[in-house]
Amino acid sequence: GRDLICIQSMDGMLMLFEQESYAFGRFLPGFLLPGPLAYSSRTDSFITVSSCQQVESYKYQVLAFATDADERQDAEQQKPSSGKRLVVDWILNIGEQALDICVVSFNQGASSVFVLGERNFFCLKDNGQIRFMKKLDYSPSCFIPYCSVREGTINTLIANHSKILNVYQDVTLKWATQLPCIPISVKVANFQDLKGVIVTLSDDGHLQCSYLGTDPSLFQAPKVDSREINYEEMNAEMKELQKIIREATKTQDILPESENQRGITVTAEVSADLDEESQAIDSEVKAGAVPSVTVKITIQSRVTAQKPSLAVCVQAPLAVTCDQFVFDDLEPDSSETVVLSVFLKENCSPPELEGTCMVSYNTPTELNPEGIPRVSQCSFSLPLKLVCFPTQPSKAAYHKLTIDTNKPPISFVTIFPDFVDPSEGDQANALGFQFLTGSKATLLASKTSQRYRIQSDQFEDLWLVTKELIYRLEEHFKMQNCKDFACAFSGSIPLQDYFELIDRHFELRLNAEKYQELLSERAVQFRAIERRLLTRFKDKTPAPLQHLDTLLEATFREVIALADAAEENQANMFQAFAKLKSATHLVIKLISLWQKLSTDQVAILEATFLPLAEDTQELGWEETVDAAVSYLLRTCLSKSSKEQALTLSSQLSMPKDTSRLKKNITLFCDRLAKGGRLSLSTDSATQQAAVMPGGCATIPESDLEERTVILGSTAMFANHGQTTKQKSKP
């Protein structure tokens, strides 16, 4: 009938009181900081967790007969009979600090000691043996074992710093619920009409009583009179709703609104002349002076724009002096202008002379003051003279292309005024382009026919000149309101030159793989020698090194040499991929001129042959293009339903060689030559395969007359398939 109270002080002293009377005090051995303390009535023991990260149990009887705390300082001078030394009953090392200890005993469960650690949850027997433990993947804050639902098990509530309350049955998670705050204490209480109320207290004094479950719905839906369904009215209503949906989802109604309501407009203006003083930074081009061109970017805001930022992107090997800009919040009808320069950084010609500006910003609304994220962007084109300058034309070259037109040739003074000296007048029918990388290309205009010839010793250098020629011719005739101008290509597609660039790029990829394997082997060898040397150096009895230091130095030199070779191979592979992209652009342009492909078909070609912006060992250009070309050959360019039934591999991996890729590209051009049409629709592929046994739809007579010269070029595929024969009309 008495209240016994135990108080633990900060210096490790246990003070015991009987009612209001002080009984005795004892110092715990090896004390540093106070830990959680609990009393077990079953064993009459005090259980705590010491600073040694171990659970300790002290019997009350041992505490009562041990040396008194007041006499601790004179303990060494006392006689052995004056008191007993404080001895621990049992110890369990848990390897971490404890947050709380709880001793429970339920009817259906055995008496247990629960310890909540910083990373684990322990359940101990009365003698200190572990009954079970649970590793926690969160940081707990408090816990309480509250009942035993099933015989031999105990249910526990554990709260954590993520505001989650977990319900465990022994080590099994039974339930988890979200709390509004982080509790520092949790209890289960029974009130007058409520049982099992969870009471939590937060560190800021927030006390909450809650329960698991849902509020019962007291609403009962009234009974409705059963009536027959009028299907005609329902169909009419359904048609009306579908009409509203169609009107709301029309693209032509949506896009103009978004254009008018666009908050920010970004425009880029490229200077017509190169910079007088070049702004090129850290350029690797070996030319004497690397030119640069100024790009002026203007951001015009119609609304309030929060956190606007501008990103300017150009494809390598081109680079910009600054590619990121951050502005203060823009007010309505305000603008910002930035100026930057673009130059050639790497020592290879770029596959594209284009750039992109992108502005990201937030527009605040009444419902969302932080703003809705939005993006505006625009693209700009760079001048050809950024990467080349005029030079004397060459009479002979290894690679040649001829572009046919349906209009008389135009003087280069008119379409290339920035590359031709005006003093030459209309007599200039040859033009030379000297690239900064050292290669040269020549453009020739025929005096008697409507043709232009582009020639160069490097196949990939033909692309930029060809693209610029076609673009300037189209712009010239557009300014003269000539709508029937067209370019064509009647020669053979230079696949063998294209395949040489593919083989070169693939060879460098194989070299990169070999360097990676050799580096891995030498690194393993280097670490093994290091371990051997470390063992020798730590040995108390000195032993000879047996030339391990020499072997370590030699291995280190091999690792450095391999790393340098791998880095050089990586730079070569970057240049090879840039050349391959330029050649791919050229092949796509020639195929489109050869077969007079539409814009959608050219887009399919570009997606097929230019799927990657960057080339990596994990996902390379060869396997990606091979999969895309194989898909087209199996669908829209298939010869029969048997080919359509073939399945493609779902996993892309680096091939052993490029023979399959080159075979598929050759077959791809062969199918196009025989009248195949590019389409991503499976219906059109099936219909096309059913038209002709060869898988190609018949060509109308009018188209045949227009493309007699073009289709006659299929003789180049004689080694890979049958050639087509044509009869002239009488």
TrEMBL record:
Family annotation (InterPro entries): PHTB1_GAE_dom (IPR028074), PHTB1_N_dom (IPR028073), PTHB1 (IPR026511), PTHB1_CtH_dom (IPR055364), PTHB1_hp_dom (IPR055363), PTHB1_pf_dom (IPR055362)
Keyword annotations of the record: Coiled coil
Residues covered by the PTHB1 hairpin domain: 492-595
Domain called PTHB1 GAE: residue spans: 289-380
Coiled coil: 224-251
Residue span(s) of domain PTHB1 C-terminal helix bundle: 597-672
Name of the protein this chain belongs to: PTHB1 protein
UniProt lineage: Eukaryota, Metazoa, Chordata, Craniata, Vertebrata
Gene designation per UniProt: Bbs9
